Amino acid sequence: MTYEQFLVPIDILFGDCPPLAERLWIHRPYSSYEVLISTAEYIIFPIGNGKISHQETFAPSSRVNGGLPLTEHEILQVVDAAPRLGTPVTMLPYMSKDEQTRGDLSSQVPIEQHTLIMTLRRLEQLNKAYEQKYGFRFVLFVDGRTRAEIVPIMEERLAHGQRDQEMRIALEYIIAIARSRLHKLQRSKL
After folding, report:
1. For the residues of 110-157, what is the DSSP string, one character each?
2. Residues 6+ apart with CB under 8 A from 56
3. Exposure string (b/e) for 116-139, b if CB count within 10 Å is 16 or more?
4. Among 106, 177, 188, 172, which Cα is nearest to 142's?
5. How many CA atoms lie within 13 A of 147 on its CB side?
6. Which of 16, 23, 113, 118 is most buried (most C-beta within 10 Å)?
């Protein structure tokens, strides 16, 4: 398998994230995609008690990645590989498009165009404020939630979150989203 071929499932599961892809490439081969995701989790999070300090967030154990820990810049690239919530549907990758629109499409209450426009504008404002405050994108496991349901969650995390806590949440969601995407793909193959 070439590196370019290897990137196809990485991009589907995690988005365009070169630092993570490079670390995962080093650790191949994988017996399954679940093992690949578990390896990504190991790369992203330090070994320990599950609690992460600011320093640990950006400097995982030297045993991780064969002694090549992710730098702060690389961790930010992992988080920022997630698309912004409220991004126009035409600009979203396939899996993100499905995840970000499913809640709106399955809602029992039709969404008025004006309400949708106002919600998208609010999400754009919140994205900017969040990125300005924390320095990285807001990440949420949105699957099944409407955009309107995301707004108060984002407002709450923006108002009361701490940077380290928000980074931890974002990284946990990235792993959860990858596992969810894998399960959807596996179910669609059956």
Report:
1. PPPHHHHHHHHHHHHHHHHHHHHHHSS------TT--HHHHHHHHHHH
2. 46, 48
3. eeebeebbeebbeebeeebebbbb
4. 177
5. 28
6. 23
The H helix count followed by the E strand count for the chain is 9, 0
Average pLDDT (84-108) is: 58
Q: Taking residues 35-50, what's their average pLDDT? A: 79
**pLDDT at residue 17 greater than cutoff 60:** yes
The mean pLDDT value for 43-57 works out to: 53
Number of Cβ atoms within 10 Å of the Cβ of 190: 4
- pLDDT, tens digit, 9 for 90 and up, residues 136-145: 999 999 878 8
**pTM of the model as a whole:** 0.79
| 74 phi, psi to nearest 5 deg | -70, -40
Joined tokens for residue 158: 């923006």
DSSP state of 45: S
Q: In the prediction, which pLDDT does 51 show?
A: 42
Q: How high is the pLDDT of residue 143?
A: 77
Place of tokens 């496991």: 141
